[in-house]
Design a protein that fits this description.
16 helices; DNA polymerase, domain 1; 3 strands; elongated; mainly alpha; single chain; Helicase, Ruva Protein, domain 3
Amino acid sequence: MARSFSIRRQRGFTTIAMICFAALYLPIGVLVFYSFNAGESLASFDGISLRWFQKAFENKQVIDASLRSLQIAAIAAVVSTIAATMAALATTRTAPYRGLTIKYAFINQPLMIPEIVTAVALLIFFARIKIWTGYAGVGYLIAATPGVLSRAEGGGEITVDTFLHVREDALQLYGFVDAGERQLFLQLLTVSGVGPKVALAVVSGSPAPELRRAIALEDHARFQAIPGIGKRTAERIVLELKEKVSLTADDATAYAAEETPTHLVARDALVELGYTVLEAEQRLQDVDPELPPAERVRLALRAG
């Protein structure tokens, strides 16, 4: 009876161990299987192909990283073997004493902590003590607005507000000169038919305060002047963001000066004369907004 119970218990432990190993290695097996997928999505298997491996070996950075990983692995294997052998000899030849259990627990600690946790902890530690502050040559490609690019031209370190757009087949990083520009970008993403590329084109077309004022004024022409933005997209942007975009104190001051339709009349007159919307806005910027439209147009032309 006791033997039968022992056999059942052993089989139960074996079953639990097999389930644990399956939970650990099954995801790895699935990733290995899909690495031969001819398609670009994990949602469907489109046949067997080696093109991903071919692309990996054609990438110099991947090759360099692989060689560096092999070098580190070889050094780590040699050092750990020597250290583990010395520790094992010291442990087996030492007579039992108080605190031996604590020492065993310390030695077995790496077996109980996941490797990824240890790696991240070491990365943060080395970065904090300034031993290593880089990321092994890894860089991030950022699609940025002109304001960010102009700040980066001088060289040196700059701080950029970013947004990570997650897609099924890509992770795209976008950079902005300040939080207001980033906020307007996120609001544009809520407009039907506007994706990250169109939203980036919009916030790159004019400063964020001017775009917010254009939305408040229902100025479709300002958005149509941006390359890649048609009439329907401009109308959707104004219609759907009219209640979402709030003006700052500076925006409200400028908005009050342009609240009357005389500004739009003067600008449209300059557009009829061949200027773009942005050029017309720039010419009218230094002209007294209290003047009649015809006088503002005359002074804007004279300034040019």
